[in-house]
Design a protein that fits this description.
- By secondary structure, the protein is α/β, with parallel strands linked by helices.
- The protein has a single domain, classed as Rossmann fold.
- Helix content is about 25%, strand content about 20%.
- The chain contains seven helices and seven strands; from the N terminus they run H-H-H-E-H-E-H-E-E-H-E-H-E-E.
- Strand 1, helix 4 and strand 2 form a beta-alpha-beta unit.
- It comes from Neurospora tetraspora.
Length: about 270
């Protein structure tokens, strides 16, 4: 997920910066920019997913779930959701939400997991969130999602190779359109202004200032995904520093940040 109370992005899937994500976890959800980015992403996901009759059977894996803002929005629409994040502080917040009295306590199909997922066969993701029992070793996911994580990942090909390995191949997939799908969202590198997405004091763990269509198409196709589509999904307005390093996020100008939605299907 993100790293500070002024950012809008989830925790990296590398160890870099996890200390600051852990520190910021308690106040994470109080940032309106984070809430806005999540709600816009959720709308983009739903518009690209199957109808409820099919989606309700999906077992979903989310990488870089943070405090579970997106997880908890999507959970009522799917069979199960395994929410993975490398920052234990973020997972602690999500776990508390699910165990507290309130609306989130009614959600029984989300399983928070604190880990840096690098092996698609890692047993830690092989537990059914609904029953609590171990899945068959050959179990794979119908859908993998990830929101505002990619710009924190040094090796995108390695990440998507892992994602590919967690998805159902078409030969074992129960739906008509073939194997499992990946859908990720992150802000676009639209030029020098994209750097302003993060304040200068919060650049630790930022590997790139957004993603590009060409880069992501190459990564997805390179690890074997088919039906690859990378397109602009939405634009989010975000207040930035008036000058790099000034730290005045409340007083700076509002910049429009386009977000790319990256999709692919395992064969």
């Amino acid at each position: 997920m993100a790293s500070q109370t002024t950012a809008t992005d989830p925790t990296p899937t590398t160890g870099t910066g996890n200390a600051r994500f852990n520190t910021d976890a308690a106040n994470w959800d109080s940032n309106p920019s984070i809430q806005l980015a999540t709600s816009l992403a959720f709308e983009s996901y739903l518009s690209r997913l199957p109808p409820p009759s099919e989606l309700s059977s999906f077992n979903v894996l989310e990488i870089g779930c943070g405090t579970g803002l997106l997880s908890l929005l999507l959970a009522p629409h799917v069979r199960s959701l395994t929410a993975v994040d490398a920052a234990e502080g973020m997972i602690d917040v999500l776990t508390h939400k699910l165990s507290s009295v309130g609306s989130h306590a009614q959600i029984k199909n989300v399983r928070p997991v604190a880990c840096l997922l690098e092996d698609p066969e890692d047993p830690i993701i092989k537990i059914d969130p609904v029953t609590g029992e171990a899945w068959d070793g050959n179990m794979k996911f119908d859908l993998v999602i990830s929101h505002l994580v990619l710009h924190h990942v040094a090796d995108l090909s390695a990440l998507f190779k892992t994602i590919y390995g967690t998805l159902k191949p078409s030969s074992t997939h129960g739906h008509q359109k073939g194997g499992g799908r990946v859908i990720t969202t992150d802000f676009e590198n639209f030029g020098p202004e994209a750097r302003r997405f993060h304040p200068e004091a919060k650049m630790e763990g930022v590997e790139r200032h957004g993603i590009t269509k060409e880069e992501m198409e190459g990564v997805l196709k390179g690890v074997g995904f088919e039906e690859v589509k990378v397109e602009r999904g939405f634009v989010m307005q975000k207040r930035v520093e008036s000058e790099p390093g000034k730290g005045d996020m409340e007083r700076g100008p509002v910049v429009e940040f386009p977000f790319l939605v990256c999709e692919g299907r395992r064969v």
